[in-house]
Amino acid sequence: MSEEKRKLSKKQRALGLLRVAKITYKAAPGAVFIKFIGTLINAILPIVTTYFAALTTTALAEAYSGDTTAGGRAITYVIITAALGVAMTAWSSLENYLNQYVRYKINAAVSDRLYEQFLSLDFWRYDDKHTADIYDKAKQFANFFGYIFDSLASIFTSFITLLAGLIALLFVSWWLGLILVAAVIPGIVIQFKLSRAQTKHWNENVETRRALNMIEWNMFVIDKIAELRVYGVVRHLLDLRMKLRDKDEKERISFERKYIGKQLGADVIEAAAEVTALLYTTLQIIAHAQPIGQFLYVQQVVSRAMGGARSFVSQINSIDSDIANLFDYQEFMDLPTGASRTTKLHRQPRLITLDEVSFHYPGSKTLVLDDVSLKIERNQHIAIVGENGAGKTTLIKIILGLYSPIKGKVLLDEHDLAQVDMASWHSYLGVLQQDFVKYSFASAKDNILMGNVSVPMNQEHFEAALDRAEARTFLEKLPKGLDSFVNQWMEHNDGTSGVDLSGGQWQRLALARNFYRDSPVIILDEPTSAIDALAESRIFKHLFAEKNRTVITISHRLTTVERADVIYMMEAGKIVEQGTHKELVAKKGAYHHMFESQLRESEK
User: What is the reported pLDDT for 75?
Assistant: First the structure.
């Protein structure tokens, strides 16, 4: 978001504060009401306590001067002051609990909505920088929303403290209140300027902090340390990290240094105003026999009012960027999702059709798919082949509905995929891509069961999945068998550590998860690259032998693709050849050229 957009008007700031209050009230209305009462208590009770403390001082002085009735009044005021102190202490204990409770409730409500929205976005947005930027800001807002509400409550408390202090001073002298207002204005102006500069610096260094976080993440991921050290880039990354950190933090400290003298001047003006008020009160006590407790009363009230003014301005400005992030949060939450797709599939499609489909990724004009047309019939076995970068994986993502074509259509029977509810389409699919998910926090068994969490475990499907993926042998040999954690950093209750799996073992585990899903349409994108050729051949021999499933696979191994009913050969985003293995070999075209070395090996 541009700097111009980040500067909030008074109206936007007020609307933002109201929206924070509204979201919080929806999350925990009872606790918010108590929090509101608490802000009043925090602002007013100390001044009331000061008032009775001042009365106590006056009564004691009068008793010392010989007033026989003053002692009783002093005792009464001491009891009231003590009771108010106990009430403040009790409230502080209760307030601590309420703060934690409210923070938990509203953080949970806001972050839950954020994550649900993130996982519901159109897939192209995950490649969109603007979406990534507002998500980062929205996530920052969500993570600290409970503290933002605390800040809002503190702003209200500070304002009431300032207002109550001014009103309290009016009972002594109206012009003391005027002096107080005049004294806090320079500090308010300086604090506003400083906070604006801090906000501007924060917004201008979003990319710097993002790069810094990425470097720190890469440096402390165990799997990446080996490459960092072998390539000798550790020192380079450490130096780059320090450079970025200095650009962010050191520059901020430098410009804040420029405000030290101005802040000191404002503090001197406030101190002079406080001294003036106390001198005036002292003279009033001496010259006009005013109550001696008035000195304590004025000193405490002026101090609290000035503190409230400084706190109010500081918190208003510190929350400014958070309010701006609220608008980013709202912008993110308003991004469209697939909710508008209302067509539900009630049976597996008989025909998947790509009709003159073209596609390029967001932010690029280079076509990854160029006028692609193909048909996949129910229970047909399809192979898609081509060199890296030919567009194979993108074609799969188009079929999955993760991306929408910029031209052409994807049809499921007569239904345009762009209008189909994605959940209803995905319910028929079992998909295993190159970058499959590794549930490192879970056991081997749970990793397989993740294939279908919508129904209770099906033991028959589970056993079949182990065998079809040829995963049973190595999984049963793990320290705790299928119940073993598949990450060395996880530990069982008896102290047994988890185990790390090899690349091939992970692929078999992921294949078992795919097979456990038992879907009528199976899509496999280079799923066995780390599995030896003989094992892959056996797995696909069994898979292609099943005539009651639609199978779409991408592979560079001839033993896999040659069994397909139809093979599509892709080059530069186009389908250049299609047919059976024998037909394409006989053409001696692009397919024959790609697999030429493997064909020679198979003929030996």
Answer: 87
Tell me 416's DSSP state: E
Residue 27's CB is within 10 A of a number of other CB atoms, namely: 20
**DSSP string over 146-184:** HHHHHHHHHHHHHHHHHHHHHHHHHTT-HHHHHHHHHHH
Compute the distance between CA of residue 141 and CA of residue 113 in angstroms, rounded to an integer. 12
Q: What is the pLDDT of residues 156-193, one digit of tens each?
A: 787 887 777 777 777 777 777 777 777 777 877 787 77
Q: Higher pLDDT residue, 557 or 352? A: 352
The strand pairing partners of 383, in sequence order, are 553, 567
DSSP-derived pairing of the beta strands 415-416 and 407-412: antiparallel
Note the helical H segments in 319-453. 320-333, 392-400, 422-426, 444-449
- Pick the residue with more confidence: 387 or 260? 387
In this structure, are residues 460 and 468 in contact, taking their beta carbons and an 8 Å threshold?
no
What's 300-335 look like in SS3?
HHHHHHHHHHHHHHHHHHHCHHHHHHHHHHHHHHCC
The structure tokens 């050969």 sit at: 569
Neighbours of 65 (CB within 10 A): 9
Amino acid identity at 435: D
Is residue 416 within 8 Å of residue 435, measured between CB atoms?
Answer: no
Is the CB of residue 521 less than 8 Å from the CB of residue 455? no
* Tokens at 571, concatenated: 């080059």
Give the pLDDT confidence of 85-122 residue by residue, as tens digits: 888 888 877 877 777 777 787 778 788 888 888 888 87
* pLDDT band (50, 70, 90) for residue 13: low
> How far is residue 335's CA from residue 23's CA, in Å, rounded to a whole number?
18
User: Which residue shows structure tokens 């094992």?
Assistant: 535
pTM of the full structure: 0.64
Q: How far apart are CA 492 and CA 148, in angstroms?
A: 39
Q: Which two tokens stand for residue 376?
A: 């996949």
List residues bridging with 412 in a β-sheet. 352, 415
Which pair of structure tokens corresponds to residue 207?
């990319």
How far is residue 431's CA from residue 563's CA, in Å, rounded to a whole number?
19
The DSSP H or E segment spanning 264 is helix 260-288
Please state, in angstroms and rounded to a whole number, the distance separating the CA atoms of residues 211 and 217. 10
Would you state the structure tokens that stand for residue 403, as one six-digit string?
Answer: 């991306």
**Cβ pair 197, 318 in contact under 8 A:** no
What is each CA distance from 134 to 96, 110, 331, 334, in whole angstroms? 32, 15, 8, 11
